[in-house]
Structure formats: structure tokens, C-alpha cells
Design goal:
CATH architecture of chain C: Orthogonal Bundle
Chains: A mainly alpha, B mainly alpha, C mainly alpha
Structural class of chain A: mainly alpha
Helix content of chain A: 55-70%
Oligomer: heterotrimer
Order of helices and strands of chain A: HHHHEEH
Distance between the termini of chain C: 43 Å
Radius of gyration of chain A: 17 Å
Number of helices of chain C: 3
Largest interface: B-C, 109 and 96 residues
Largest sheet of chain A: 2 strands, antiparallel
Number of domains of chain A: 1
Number of strands of chain A: 2
Strand content of chain A: 5-15%
Structural class of chain C: mainly alpha
Strand content of chain C: under 5%
Number of helices of chain A: 5
Shape of chain C: elongated
Order of helices and strands of chain C: HHH
CATH topology of chain C: Helix Hairpins
Chain lengths: 137, 775, 125
């Protein structure tokens, strides 16, 4: 499967897809997209790269263990639900920052939650694919 | 107050850390927790004595009326003090008792969880939250009884106690919910206002029975008493703490709490008085013949719990005031006696009372503890146990028309208990020296200091009852009967209770000196095994197991496709049958007609082409012999479905479906790339049968959808709400996304957790084995 | 419109269960994927189905009025798709492990740890 076309393509596709995935994540609140799709697109980008270049190369550009990404995502999502307590609101209430930010748009705990989803999905998918791939070799 | 209850759970989390830091002082360090809780609760005494009730509220699920409301009144405070005070003694004691055990870390974790939940039970005012704490005590008790889980007996006893007490807890929950439905409140403190409404309700008998199943199982009342003696498999500190001083009193506690709510009826009196009285009599008699120190004490605990239950059943101010004092005295002396038994076991290696005597030379401090505690338990003047017993006699004598019956069984039981206390607290220390261990030496300071404090308190509280426990127990009484009060004193003059006490001591002494012939006499009473409730438990337990085995053999024979076949066949039978049962085939045709007519209006050429492509791809997936081509057709189907999502206004779904499809094709290819082509295992006949079943199933799917689309829409009204508020509340214009991350964020949290578990599962399936292989 | 969807769901469900009744584990996993798709589409088609009206609030409005596709089932399906992927991945890993141990993807060779072993199975040999 180490075709030259795939290699050349994924070299350029990887950064593009990653940027696209983050774009999907942040615009998800108002347009199609969101954490699930964003995370899937990002993992698809790495998977393509994996098919093109093999596991060692991917590990060298994705240095963190996917399982840690997963844990980080879960933690981020969970902690965003606890955050409202400090504002005297029940668990999981959305708390929003009043002003709009560039790129991200309006920022609130649901945005953080969605980011958590993004990382969880990314971590889960990469963890599965890396594990299966390494087991094969 | 919320934090005080929670602290036990927090400490439970850091127990391993403390032991890692310094193993030697960890136990002592941990005892600071119950000590500080004890001091914390002590500081409420002035407020409570002034007649205040302190209520703190923490909203948990206000919508369901589940709140963490903690109330401190006289009764709750008395219990909280007992729990934290004896907790301190037990924590300290265990640090030496389990010093050499490897399992000391889990011990402290479990017992901290237990203490926290027990404090929750006695201070929580919301019945639903109370139920949570109630079941947590059952679970921690389960873990502690099964502490030596290598032994089958421990596991049996642990499971038994869990099934009995947690099962009873479920009955309690049902009762509590019914109560909540009738009164509209789940706060104990507000329920008593509805007493007449509750008692006159048709549901009252069932509520009462459910409630009592909960409290009887917890407090080991007949016919659920059998788990408590078996629970003695737990380490002795646990028996002292959970199974005599605190947890088993939770049932009794709840019954007093609910006396103003459910009590005052004949049914209440007969159920509690009857079962309590019988438990008291039966358990005290059974206790006499026990030879294991701990089982001896356990049966006497069951008997005392029966006494307490009976007193609550009799109701009335005298009875409750007697009950509170009796309970308080019992916690002190029984805790001390259990810990004494633990010391004996620890130092001599046996708990069989036939093998030990005359230990006083080698265990001088323990002797003092044992004797003091036993004297209180026997009801000898001037211990607090004496006051308790006098009040018990007095209250029983005043119990109305059946007082003769009640006083008779009470006196007999008291005589039995008198003897049992002597067997356990006095006899092992006196007489000729006998012990299986070669070298017996006094237990360390940590193990003796706590029990001696408990034993001495029994004396001090007895001598100075009027100036010490009088105030708080009065307030405890007043939290049930606001206008009642009692005055504690050692000596009430020459009256009938005093006479009965003298009788008790005289006959009791006879029992002590004539133990052998007494036991012989009891042994002669033969009751067929069938009448033992513990046998019923075994029957029910084994019956369930063999039923499970039979139906497992029948339904789960190890062939996946038969499981699926069974499920499918049943589904087709039930759902398909209901179509023909409730609707004529005419209406099915009608639905088809309506649906086709509607669809024809909006149908496009690409709908038809999609349909055809799906059909071709599916058929190809079914018949294909090559793995890659099967996977490819699966991918095509997935892509087509994402196309459907796009056409029907679900772009988010389409994107997700498409990326998932990409990833899953990669996954399949990764694993299956090098495998050989499919081999056809089944015969043609089987394949046709399967196809028929599958077709039937698929048609039912189709019919259901057509039915719904023709006759009615699934519409929850929620969607309108989301459409209205998505931007205004959720700050997002993509409604699907707002539902995911905000409105139904809790679901999403659960779902990503499931995903994470799947990933960890894959990881551990493939990776961990690899590392193990390398080693 | 629902009629077409109903037929498609029927086809998918039929294929799913035919595959799941096979003895080859790979086919069973393929069947699971098909079943996931069928169920997702079922939920989708029993809710309000519209062509082309996605559930987005317009740029200069703050609430959504008029005709729009039901967003609630969509949210449910979205997570269901991703979870389906998780189970599928787990099944594949399980298959891989089983294949390494047994060397075959015949389910009848994988049931030896169960209570009943290879006793006579009616109908199927």
C-alpha cells in the first residue's frame, strides 16, 4: 500500500485536514460540524498518513500516546461540566463568556465540552488504529 | 455538615497514599478523621440542648425532590456521636489489630466509606438520599464481611448479608417512594404532619410492611436475623463497629424516626412488638449455647436489637426513652466486649470459650475491660446498663393489656443475656489458666485504650447519669415526642422493676454456674431444619442458581447464531403477531397505500437510484466470496446512507457517517487484508432458512416504518422546544450540535465514556498480551 | 419519501440478520455494521422527515420556525454512529485475537470455553 501517489497526497492533505478538523470543531455550534466530526476528520488524516508512511513515521509526528489524548479529552469534557458549580449553578449548566472571540466564536463551557469530545474521539480512533496496525507487524 | 459526611469518602480515596507515606503511623493518622468528626458533632450539643434543630440543604436533583438535606436534632446527634466516637476507638484498635495484615489498606478504605455512609444515614433528612447512604452501608458491610475473601465461608457470609440487607433496602425504597407519593414530600421532618393521612390510606399496610422489611433486614430481626451471626467472619473491629454498635442499629434508628409518621396503629404495635419480642427471646436463647465468643456476642446483639424493636413497637414515651438509653448503653458495652473478644483472639489464637479461662494473669487490662463491660451488659448497679434495664422493665410493665406476656419474655431474655455477658466478658478471665497459645501477653496500647474508655464510660454514665447523658437523651426523646421528658437516676426506689432485676440476677447467676446442664437442655430442643429462615435463604439461593443454569443451558448453548435466532424468532412472533392480532391485514395494505401515495408526490429519480444501489450493494455483500469485495460493498452502503442524510436535511449525520465509513473500511482492511477468501460453512437448506427469517425480520422493520409514517408521527414536542431555545439558551444555531453538547450533554458524556472503554478494551486485548509475551 | 426509506431499511435489516446468522465471524461483524445502519435509518425515518430543510437557525434569526428536519433523532443517531464504530472496532480486535488463537474464523470452533461444548446442534452441520 506504499504507493507514491498516496504518499505525496497525504503529505499535503495531513495539515490541511487537521486545520479543517479544528475549523469543523469550532464552527460546529452554528454550522454543520462539531467535536465528533472534527475528531473523526483529524483521525482520518492521521490514518491516511499511516497508510502512506507506516507506523513509525506517524509515531514520530504524533508523539503522544493516543490513550493519553483520550484521557485528556474525557477529563476536559468532564471538568467543563463541573465548572458551573463555581458560579453557583447546577452541574452541566452552560456558562458563557459574553464577548465573541476571533476564530472560536462565542466561548462557553459547551465549547470546552465539545473540544473534550474532539480529543476523546481522536484519541479513541487513533488508539484503535495504531494498536491494530502495530499488532499486525 | 455536608462536608462532614463527605469527608469519609474523601479520606477513603487517599488511604493508599497515607500508607505509602508511612505505614507505621498511618492507622493512627487515619484515626484523626473519626476523632475530628466526633469533636465536630460535639460542638452541636449546646445548640441542641437549647432546643435548636440545625438543617443544611444542598441541592442534588431538586427536580426529583432528591436533596442532600442534613438535619441535626437530639436523636440524630446522639447517633452521630456514637458512630464517630466508636469509630475513633475502632480505627485506633485496627491499626494494631491488623498491623501485620496486607489488607490493612482496603480495610481503612472500606471502613471510611462505611463511616461516611452511616453518618449520612443518621443525619440525612431526605428519604431518597437516605436510601443511597443506606445501601452504601450494606455495600461496605459486604466488603468488610468478605474481608478474608480467600475463605469460602467469608464469601458466603458476605454475599448473604448483601442479598438480605440490600434486598431489604429495595423494599425500603419502594415504601419510601409510596410515602412520598402520598405526602408529596421526601423530607422526614415534614412527613409527621401527614400522620393521619398516611395511616388512613389504603396503601398504609403495604407501606408499613415494605418499610419494615427494610429495617428488619438491616437490624437482623426474625426472620432475617441469620445473616448477622454469619457476618462474624469479618475482622473483629468490623464486628464491633458495624455489626453491633452502628450499622445494625440503622434499622432501629429508622423505626424510631418513623414512629411519628407510621406508628401509633395496632398493626405497627403487633408487627414490631411481635417480631421484636420473638427475636429477643429466640436469639438470647440461641446465644446461650454458642461456644464461639463472637457468635455468642452476635446472638446477644440480635436479641438486644429485638428488644429495641419491641420497645418501638410498644410506642409511648416511656418505651422510647427506655429504648434510647438501652441502645446507648448497648453500643458502649457491646463495642467494648467485641474488642475484648478481638484481643483474646489476637493473643491466644482462639475464640472458643471452652478452650480459654483464667487469662487475667496475662491480660490484666483486658480483664478489667471485659468485666466492666460485661457488668454493664448484665445490668448491674451502678452501670448505665442497669438504668437501661430498669427503664426497659418499667416501660414493658406499662405496655397495656398484654404487659404480662411482654414482661415475661423480657425477663427471660434478660436472664439469658445476663448469662451470655458473663460467658463472654468474665469467664474467660477467671478460673484455672487454660489457653492454646504458649505465650500470652497483653495487647498493645492502641488496642486496649479505646475499649477501656468505652467500658469506663459505661460506669461513669451510670454513676452520673443525671448530669451527663440526661440532657442529650432528653433531646433525642423530644425529637420524637416534643413534649416528653425523662429524668435519669440510678435508684428509683423499691418497686417492681427493682424486684425483677433482683430476680434476673439470681436466676442469671444460676445459669452462669450451671452452664453445662443448661446447654444440654437447650440442645435437646430439636426444631426441624425446615423452620430455619437461613434454610429458606439457601433454598431460594440454590433454586435461583439451578434455574439460571437450566435456562442458560437451554438458551445459551454456546452458538452465537442460535442466540440470535432465538431473539429473532421471538421478535417476529411478538411484533409480527401483534400486527395480525390488532390490525387486520386490510389496515396494513391501507398504510402501504397512504404511504405510497404520499411518497409518490415527493419522489425523485435519485431516490429510486439510491434504492437500487443499496439493494445491489447489500446482495453483493451477502453473496461475495472475497473479503475485500464484501468490505467494499459495506463501504458503498455506508456512503449511500450518508447521501440519504444529506438529502433529508441532516448534514451533521452525513459528515459523521462518511468519516466513520472511511475509518471502518481502513480498520477492516487492516485486519482482514491477508485472510483467505470466505468459506461457505452452511448447507443450502440452512442458508435458505436463515434468509427467510432475515427477510421476515426486515419486512417487519419496513412495515413498522410505513405504519408510523401513515398513521402517526413520533413527535415528542421536545424538538420544538430545542428549535425555540437553541440560540437563546444554548448560544448555537446548529440545533443538533447544541443538543449534543448542551441540552443532552450528560448523554454525550456517557457516550464518549463508552467510546473510551471500547478503545481501552481494544488496547488491552491486543497490547497487554504482547507485553506479557515478551516477559 | 418514507416509503423509499422503509424499503431501504428493510433491505439493510435483512442483510444484517442474514449475515449475523453465518458461522463466519467476519460476516457476523459485517452484519453488525449493517444492523447499526438499519437501526439508525429507522430512527431517522420514524421522525419528521423533510427534504432539504436542515435544523439550523437562520443567520439573522434567533428561533427556528416553519418546516425543518427533526434535530433530536439526529443528535441521537450521531452518537449512535460513533458508538457503533467503537463496538465495531472492539469486535474487530476481538476477531483478530480469536483468529490468532484459533486460526480460523469459524464460530463453531470458538465455543469451547462455554458451558456446553460441541454437542449435536440441530439442523446445522
Amino acid at each position: 500500500m506504499r504507493s507514491i501517489i498516496l504518499r505525496t497526497m497525504t503529505m499535503y492533505l495531513l495539515p490541511l485536514l487537521l486545520i479543517f478538523s479544528v475549523f469543523l470543531l469550532f464552527r460546529g455550534h452554528n454550522h454543520p460540524g462539531g467535536g465528533f466530526v472534527g475528531g473523526l476528520v483529524a483521525s482520518a488524516a492521521y490514518s491516511l498518513y499511516l497508510l502512506g508512511f507506516g507506523i513509525d513515521k506517524v509515531r514520530s509526528i504524533f508523539r503522544i500516546q493516543p490513550i493519553k489524548v483520550l484521557a485528556f479529552g474525557l477529563f476536559l469534557a468532564a471538568s467543563s461540566t463541573v465548572f458551573p458549580i463555581f458560579f453557583g449553578k447546577p452541574l452541566m449548566t452552560g456558562v458563557w463568556y459574553e464577548h465573541k472571540l476571533p476564530i472560536v466564536g462565542s466561548l462557553g463551557t459547551p465549547t470546552v465540552f465539545d473540544t473534550g469530545v474532539y480529543f476523546t474521539v481522536l484519541g479513541v480512533t487513533l488508539n484503535i488504529i495504531f494498536t491494530l496496525f502495530e499488532d499486525k507487524e | 455538615m455536608f462536608f462532614a459526611v463527605l469527608s469519609g469518602f474523601i479520606v477513603a480515596c487517599i488511604v493508599p497514599l497515607i500508607f505509602k507515606l508511612n505505614r507505621k503511623v498511618a492507622g493512627a493518622l487515619l484515626s484523626i478523621l473519626p476523632l475530628s468528626l466526633f469533636i465536630y458533632y460535639l460542638q452541636f450539643i449546646p445548640n441542641v440542648l437549647a432546643g435548636e434543630k440545625i438543617l443544611t440543604t444542598f441541592y442534588w436533583i431538586p427536580f426529583l425532590k432528591i436533596n442532600l438535606n442534613f438535619l441535626i436534632d437530639g436523636l440524630n446527634l446522639t447517633f452521630a456521636l456514637i458512630i464517630s466516637g466508636i469509630g475513633f476507638v475502632v480505627y485506633l484498635y485496627a491499626s494494631a489489630y491488623l498491623e501485620k495484615s496486607e489488607k490493612i489498606v482496603p480495610f481503612y478504605i472500606y471502613i471510611s466509606i462505611f463511616m461516611a455512609s452511616m453518618l449520612g444515614v443518621v443525619t440525612c433528612d431526605n428519604t431518597l438520599a437516605l436510601f443511597v447512604f443506606w445501601e452504601l452501608t450494606s455495600i461496605s458491610s459486604f466488603l468488610l464481611i468478605g474481608f478474608n475473601h480467600e475463605q469460602e465461608r467469608s464469601r458466603y457470609a458476605a454475599l448473604q448479608s448483601l442479598l438480605v440487607t440490600a434486598g431489604g433496602g429495595l423494599a425500603l425504597l419502594a415504601g419510601v417512594i409510596m410515602l412520598g407519593q402520598i405526602t408529596g414530600t421526601y423530607e422526614i421532618s415534614q412527613m409527621s404532619a401527614f400522620h393521619s393521612t398516611i395511616v388512613s390510606n389504603v396503601l398504609y399496610p403495604s407501606i408499613l410492611v415494605l418499610f419494615l422489611i427494610g429495617t428488619f433486614t438491616k437490624s437482623a430481626q426474625f426472620p432475617f436475623h441469620f445473616w448477622l451471626p454469619n457476618a462474624m467472619e469479618a475482622p473483629t473491629p468490623v464486628s464491633a463497629y458495624l455489626h453491633s454498635a452502628t450499622m445494625v442499629k440503622a434499622g432501629v434508628f429508622l423505626m424510631i424516626k418513623f414512629l411519628p409518621i407510621l406508628g401509633g396503629t395496632d398493626l405497627w404495635m403487633w408487627l414490631l412488638g411481635g417480631f421484636g419480642g420473638w427475636t429477643m427471646l429466640m436469639a438470647s436463647t440461641m446465644a446461650l449455647k454458642q461456644t464461639d465468643l463472637k457468635r455468642l456476642l452476635a446472638y446477644s446483639t440480635v436479641s438486644v436489637l429485638g428488644t429495641l424493636t419491641m420497645l418501638i413497637g410498644l410506642g409511648g414515651e416511656k418505651a422510647i426513652s427506655a429504648m434510647i438509653i438501652y441502645l446507648f448503653a448497648h453500643s458502649l458495652y457491646k463495642g467494648a466486649l467485641f474488642l475484648t473478644a478481638g484481643i483474646i483472639d489476637h493473643e491466644t489464637g482462639t475464640r472458643d470459650i471452652r478452650n480459654i479461662s483464667g487469662l487475667r494473669k496475662y491480660l490484666p487490662v483486658t480483664t478489667v475491660i471485659g468485666v466492666l463491660a460485661a457488668l454493664s451488659g448484665m445490668g448491674i448497679i451502678p452501670f448505665i446498663g442497669f438504668i437501661g434495664k430498669e427503664m426497659l422493665y418499667e416501660a414493658t410493665l406499662l405496655s397495656g393489656e398484654y404487659s404480662t406476656l411482654f414482661i415475661t419474655i423480657t425477663v427471660i431474655s434478660a436472664i439469658n443475656i445476663f448469662a451470655v455477658m458473663a460467658y463472654s466478658g468474665i469467664l474467660p478471665f477467671f478460673g484455672e489458666y487454660k489457653s492454646p497459645a504458649e505465650h500470652v501477653s497483653e495487647a498493645p496500647f492502641q488496642m486496649t485504650s479505646g475499649p477501656i474508655a468505652l467500658a469506663l464510660l459505661g460506669l461513669v454514665f451510670g454513676l452520673f447519669a443525671g448530669s451527663t447523658v440526661d440532657g442529650l437523651t432528653n433531646k433525642a426523646l423530644q425529637s420524637i415526642f416534643p413534649s416528653a421528658s425523662h429524668h435519669l437516676a440510678l435508684f428509683h426506689g423499691f418497686n417492681l422493676p427493682l424486684l425483677l432485676s433482683a430476680l434476673t440476677i439470681a436466676v442469671g447467676l444460676l445459669f452462669v454456674f450451671k452452664r453445662n446442664s443448661l446447654v444440654e437442655f437447650i440442645e435437646k430442643i430439636r426444631i426441624p431444619e425446615f423452620f430455619f429462615p437461613s434454610k429458606w435463604y439457601d433454598y431460594a439461593f440454590n433454586g435461583t442458581l439451578s434455574f439460571a443454569e437450566i435456562q442458560t443451558k437451554f438458551l445459551q448453548n454456546g452458538h452465537l447464531r442460535y442466540y440470535i435466532f432465538t431473539i429473532l424468532a421471538l421478535f417476529i412472533l411478538l411484533v409480527g403477531g401483534s400486527f395480525f392480532g390488532f390490525n387486520t391485514s386490510e389496515s396494513i395494505l391501507n398504510a402501504f397505500a397512504i404511504s405510497i401515495e404520499r411518497s409518490l408526490a415527493g419522489i425523485d429519480i435519485y431516490d429510486i437510484s439510491m434504492l437500487i444501489t443499496v439493494l445491489i450493494a447489500s446482495v453483493f455483500a451477502l453473496i461475495s466470496q472475497g473479503r475485500l469485495s464484501a468490505i467494499a460493498s459495506m463501504g458503498i452502503v455506508g456512503a449511500l446512507i450518508s447521501l440519504i442524510y444529506i438529502i433529508y436535511g441532516a448534514p451533521d449525520l452525513a459528515m459523521t457517517q462518511l468519516s466513520i465509513e472511511t475509518l471502518s473500511v481502513i480498520l477492516f482492511v487492516l485486519v482482514l487484508y491477508k485472510l483467505p477468501r470466505f468459506f461457505t460453512y452452511s448447507k443450502l437448506k440452512t442458508r435458505i432458512r436463515d434468509l427467510v427469517i432475515a427477510l421476515a425480520f426486515g419486512s417487519i422493520f419496513t412495515i413498522i416504518i410505513i405504519f408510523v409514517s401513515a398513521y402517526g408521527k413520533f413527535d415528542s414536542g421536545l424538538s420544538e422546544y430545542f428549535a425555540q431555545t437553541s440560540y437563546l439558551i444554548g448560544h448555537g444555531k446548529n440545533i443538533v450540535n447544541v443538543i449534543l453538547v448542551d441540552f443532552r450533554g450528560f448523554d454525550t458524556m456517557g457516550e464518549i465514556t463508552v467510546l473510551a472503554i471500547a478503545a481501552v478494551g481494544v488496547y488491552s486485548l491486543l497490547r497487554l498480551r504482547k507485553q506479557g509475551g515478551e516477559q | 419519501m418514507e416509503f423509499v426509506l422503509a424499503i431501504i431499511v428493510g433491505i439493510l435489516a435483512t442483510s444484517a440478520f442474514y449475515l449475523m446468522l453465518r458461522r463466519s465471524l467476519v460476516k457476523v461483524i459485517l452484519g453488525m455494521v449493517f444492523l447499526g445502519n438499519a437501526v439508525n435509518l429507522t430512527i431517522f425515518s420514524v421522525a419528521r422527515v423533510t427534504k432539504g430543510y436542515a435544523a439550523f437557525i437562520p443567520e439573522n434569526a434567533s428561533t427556528l420556525e416553519g418546516v425543518y428536519a427533526d434535530p433530536l433523532p439526529q443528535a441521537l443517531i450521531l452518537t449512535a454512529i460513533v458508538i457503533g464504530f467503537g463496538t465495531q472496532a472492539f469486535a474487530i480486535a476481538l476477531f483478530r485475537k480469536a483468529f490468532q488463537k484459533v486460526g480460523d474464523d469459524d464460530l463453531d470452533k470458538m465455543n469451547s470455553t462455554d458451558i456446553m461444548c460441541n454437542e449435536d446442534i440441530p439442523g446445522d452441520k
